[in-house]
Design a protein that fits this description.
- Strand 15 and strand 16 form a beta hairpin.
- This protein has three domains: 116 residues, no CATH class; 145 residues, Jelly Rolls; 158 residues, Jelly Rolls, CATH 2.60.120.
- With 462 residues, it is α+β, with helices and mostly antiparallel strands.
- It is built from five helices and 21 strands.
- The strands form four sheets. Strands 1, 3, 6, 7, 9, 10, 14, 17 and 20 form a nine-stranded mixed β-sheet that branches. Strands 12, 13, 15, 16, 18 and 21 form a six-stranded antiparallel β-sheet that branches.
- The termini are far apart.
Length: 462
C-alpha cells in the first residue's frame, strides 16, 4: 500500500509539473493571437466599435486580466443565442478550450512569446469591409451639435443608383463618414419618380414630452402621417419605398458586418433606373458634423443561382396595442407573426428592440402542426445588434411566431425612466419590436408573394 501511495504521489507531481509546463508554454504569439484574429479583431482594432485594439501584443497586454474575466464569463465575444436551439453558421462564441488558453496565458504573466510563432497579420480593410465593384454616392447630411431636445428626427432621403441596367448585387455596404453619431442607416430600392427631389432631406417633427418621447395624443409615435403641425420639409411627389419588407432592404448598424450573399450563392436584384431610399437616424454628441454617405456593391454579370430577399415582421405599432406599463419587469408584447406563402430557405434572423428589450424567441409552426424554436435570445442586449445566420428549409404554409418580453423596471440598468408608459417609437428611449430575417429563393421568384404578415408594417426599423 505504501508503494502505491508513493507511486500515486509521484504521478500527481509529474502531472502537476506537466500542467505547469503547458501553462508556461502558452504565449501571445503562438496561442492567443490566432484566437483574437478569428474572434475579436473584427471589432477590436482602430476605427471600429471596440475601445481598445487587439492587433498587437503591445496594445493587448494592458487588457490581459480584463480579457480573461470577459471570456470566462462569456461576456465576450458577444453572442446571445441559447445553444439549446438552432445551428448558426456565424457563431462567434469561444470554445471552452479557447477560453482556457486565454486564462492560462494570463495566469502565467501574459508572455509575448516568439514572433516567428505568430500567424500572418490579417489585412483588415480600411473603411470598406467589402471591396466594392461599384460605389454609389449617397446623401450629404448636416448633423447639428445641439438640436432641439437633443433629438434629430429620422430623416428620409432619395438618391439615384445610377444603374442603367438590371444589376445583381452580391454584397452591400452602407458607409457613413461619421459612425460616431450614426445610429442606423437603412435603405430600400424603389422605382424612379420624376417628382421626387433627389438628395433633399425630409422628416416629420413630432411633438415630444420632456423626456423626448413622442406623445400618442399628438399623432403617431412611429410611422403614419405627420404629427400635429406640418412636416418640416414638404413631401410633394414623394413615393413610398417599394420593398419586400416594408422599407429596409439593408441596414448599417455600428459593429455589424456588411451584408454579403456570396456564401449563399445568391444575390439581390436592383432593376435599371431604380433609386435608393435612405432612412437615417443620427444621435448627436455635442459636435456638428457633415456626413458624406457612400453605398458600395459587389456585383455579378450573370444571374446567380438564387435570390436573397430581406424581410421583417413587427408587433402592432399603435399606442392602444403596444404600451409597456410603468414598472413592469416582464411585459409580453403582442407577437410578430408571418406566414410563408412558398418554400424558402431561412438564412438570417435578427431581433431588434431598444433599451427595454429583455428576450426574444422565434418559433416556426410547420404545416403538419410541429413547432420548432429556431432562435432563443434569453438575455437581449440592445448595445449589440447581432444577426444569426442559419440554414432552415421552410415549406409553404409555415408560420413564424416571435415572442418578446420587455423590462420597464428599475432592475433594467439601461432603462431611462421606469415610471412612464413606453410606446412604439423611433428613438432609443422609446421602444421597438421589429424582427428582421432573410430568405433565399429561386432567382425568378415573385418576391412580393413570399410572406403574409399578420400585422402590416408601417415602415423600416432601426
Amino acid at each position: 500500500m505504501r508503494l502505491w501511495v508513493v507511486y500515486m504521489g509521484l504521478t500527481a507531481a509529474a502531472w502537476a509539473a506537466d500542467t505547469g509546463a503547458n501553462s508556461a508554454s502558452v504565449t501571445f504569439d503562438k496561442d492567443v493571437l490566432p484566437i483574437l484574429q478569428a474572434n475579436c479583431q473584427t471589432c477590436h482594432r482602430p476605427g471600429q466599435i471596440a475601445p481598445m485594439s487587439f492587433l498587437t501584443y503591445q496594445s493587448t497586454r494592458p487588457w490581459a486580466k480584463a480579457m480573461k474575466a470577459a471570456v470566462a464569463s462569456r461576456k465576450m465575444p458577444p453572442w446571445f443565442a441559447d445553444p439549446q436551439y438552432g445551428h448558426y453558421t456565424n457563431d462567434r462564441s469561444l470554445r471552452q478550450s479557447e477560453i482556457e488558453t486565454i486564462a492560462k496565458w494570463v495566469d502565467n504573466g501574459a508572455p509575448e512569446g516568439d514572433a516567428k510563432d505568430a500567424p500572418v497579420a490579417v489585412q483588415w480593410p480600411e473603411g470598406w469591409k467589402i471591396q466594392p465593384d461599384v460605389i454609389v454616392p449617397g446623401p450629404v447630411m448636416e448633423i447639428p451639435a445641439h438640436p432641439k431636445n437633443n433629438v434629430v428626427e429620422w430623416i428620409s432621403v432619395t438618391m439615384p443608383t445610377g444603374f442603367t441596367k438590371d444589376t445583381w448585387v452580391t454584397s452591400v455596404q452602407i458607409k457613413p463618414e461619421h459612425p460616431e453619431v450614426t445610429h442606423h442607416i437603412c435603405i430600400a430600392y424603389m422605382p424612379h419618380n420624376p417628382n421626387t427631389k433627389m438628395g433633399v432631406p425630409q422628416w416629420q417633427d413630432k411633438e415630444r414630452d420632456e423626456d423626448g418621447a413622442a406623445i400618442p395624443e399628438k399623432g403617431p409615435t412611429f410611422g403614419g402621417g405627420p404629427p400635429r403641425g406640418a412636416a418640416r420639409v414638404p413631401r410633394e411627389g414623394a413615393t413610398a419605398p417599394v420593398s419586400s419588407n416594408g422599407g429596409a432592404e439593408d441596414c448599417y448598424l455600428p459593429g455589424n458586418p456588411a451584408a454579403d450573399y456570396r456564401g449563399l450563392k445568391a444575390a439581390k436584384l436592383i432593376p435599371a433606373g431604380y433609386d435608393v431610399f435612405y432612412s437615417i437616424h443620427y444621435t448627436p454628441n455635442g459636435n456638428a458634423y457633415t456626413d458624406h454617405i457612400q453605398l458600395g456593391f459587389t456585383t455579378v454579370k450573370e444571374a446567380p443561382e438564387r435570390r436573397y430577399v430581406s424581410l421583417a415582421a413587427s408587433a402592432p405599432m399603435d399606442s392602444k396595442r403596444f404600451a409597456i406599463p410603468p414598472n413592469d419587469p416582464d411585459w409580453l408584447s403582442p407577437p410578430a407573426e408571418a406566414t410563408f406563402l412558398r418554400d424558402v430557405e431561412l438564412v438570417f434572423m435578427m431581433p431588434h428592440m431598444h433599451y427595454r428589450g429583455k428576450d426574444a424567441k422565434w418559433t416556426l409552426e410547420y404545416p403538419d402542426g410541429r413547432k420548432e424554436v429556431v432562435l432563443n435570445v434569453p438575455h437581449y442586449d440592445f448595445n449589440w445588434q447581432l444577426g444569426y445566420d442559419t440554414s432552415i428549409k421552410v415549406p409553404a404554409g409555415t408560420k413564424l411566431h416571435v415572442d418578446v418580453h420587455f423590462d420597464n423596471s428599475v432592475n433594467n440598468k439601461f432603462n431611462p425612466n421606469p415610471n412612464k408608459t413606453v410606446y412604439y417609437g423611433q428613438m432609443t428611449w422609446e421602444e421597438m419590436m421589429y424582427q428582421f430575417f432573410g430568405v433565399v429563393v429561386e432567382k425568378d421568384a415573385d418576391v412580393s408573394k413570399i410572406i403574409k404578415l399578420t400585422v402590416p408594417l408601417a415602415g423600416g426599423g432601426g
